[in-house]
Design brief:
A seven-stranded mixed β-sheet has the order 5-2-1-6-7-9-10, with helices on one face. By secondary structure, it is of the alpha/beta class. 25% of the residues lie in helices and 28% in strands. The protein is built from eight helices and 17 strands. The longest helix has 24 residues. Helix 1 packs parallel to helix 6 and helix 5 packs antiparallel against helix 7. Helix 4 links the parallel strand 6 and strand 7. The chain has two domains: 196 residues, Rossmann fold (3-Layer(aba) Sandwich), CATH 3.40.50; 97 residues, Formyl transferase, C-terminal domain (Methionyl-tRNA Fmet Formyltransferase, Chain A, domain 2).
């Protein structure tokens, strides 16, 4: 398929951005990629941002919005004769002067049914809240946080067993063709912007201790936190002074042979090599955990290695 002549600049910094951007690249002329991440170093080596690595593999020029000024970015969009700025998971609010630089529009793909779940961490927050329905929304940006007019919105389902990576896969599956549809409409002047209806909601950025499980809450709340935060940063809990990451878990049926009157946070073992933690209304089975400085391990291996013990109480705070 021949490339559309429209010139696109993509703004994004996370792995979920890459498949959508690559779909756009196959149809349109992507002339610039902008990331927003401070340079990261591991073992003395500079780590490439996933969007940066993708762009460089296709000889697309890259700028870092964490380093370049608003004036530099705006001038670059004008000099490159950018028609449309397309943003997905960029992590920074763009100033109005930058949004006005493209010749046609600046648009944002947001992974929630706007006006609900505006702001940071919409994917994690929807899973944490137990949402079973979501949507991919594409808006025309106006300088306010996720409040621009809707250009398209496509719903999708979140299964009760979906982890964040599963939801991200659904967002890519729905979002990539939706992005092409909107870009085609904008290119041909046939887009029909619609206002967001209703007050909606905002979600704040995740804080360091948001990953700690409150075992006195419901089993569903604990399970949703595990699903939302895997594989990183992971839901966590304290066994004594060790902060454990819980990478996989699953609700346990009510007929499991475990005491209903156990204290919240207590580990119970059953069928010899399986373990669960008691919540206010049931038991959450532990499938995969990670101790500090160690590789992830299955619960059965941890029980065999005497790292988990029946009767131990897991807590939100460290104890001696």
């Amino acid at each position: 398929m021949a490339l559309d002549v429209r010139r696109i600049a993509v703004f994004g910094s996370s792995p979920i951005s890459v498949p959508v951007f690559d779909t756009i690249r196959c149809r349109f002329h992507v002339v610039l990629a902008v990331v927003s991440e401070e340079p990261r170093v591991r073992r003395g080596k500079l780590l490439a941002n996933p969007v940066q690595a993708w762009a460089q593999s296709h000889s697309i020029p890259v700028l870092n919005g964490a380093e370049a000024t608003e004036e530099v970015l705006t001038k670059r969009l004008v000099d490159d004769a950018v028609d449309i700025l397309f943003l997905l998971s960029y992590g920074r609010l763009l100033p109005q002067a930058l949004l006005d630089a493209p010749r046609i529009a600046s648009v944002n793909l947001h992974p929630s049914p706007l006006p609900w779940y505006r702001g940071a961490a919409p994917i994690e927050r929807q899973i944490m809240d137990g949402c079973t329905q979501s949507a991919v929304s594409i808006i025309r940006m106006n300088g306010l946080l996720d409040r621009g007019e809707l250009l398209a919105q496509e719903p999708f389902t979140i299964a009760d067993s979906d982890y964040r990576t599963d939801v991200e896969a659904s967002i890519i599956r729905v979002g990539a063709p939706l992005a092409l549809h909107v870009l085609d409409q904008l290119s041909h002047g046939s887009a029909t912007p619609l206002p967001q209806i209703g007050k909606g909601s905002y979600v704040r950025k995740l804080k360091p201790d948001d990953d700690l499980i409150d075992w006195s809450g419901s089993m569903g709340q604990a399970y949703n936190l595990v699903r939302a935060l895997a594989p990183e940063p992971c839901a966590s809990t304290y066994q004594g002074s060790n902060r454990l990451k819980i990478r996989r878990a699953t609700p346990l049926s009510a007929d499991a042979e475990l005491p209903a009157d156990a204290p919240c946070g207590m580990i119970g073992t059953f069928l010899r090599k399986r373990a669960a933690v008691h919540c206010s209304d049931g038991w959450l089975e532990l499938l995969e955990l990670q101790f500090p400085g160690k590789s992830p391990m299955s619960t059965s291996d941890l029980l065999n290695g005497h790292r988990l013990f029946s009767g131990t109480i897991l807590r939100r705070n460290p104890s001696a």
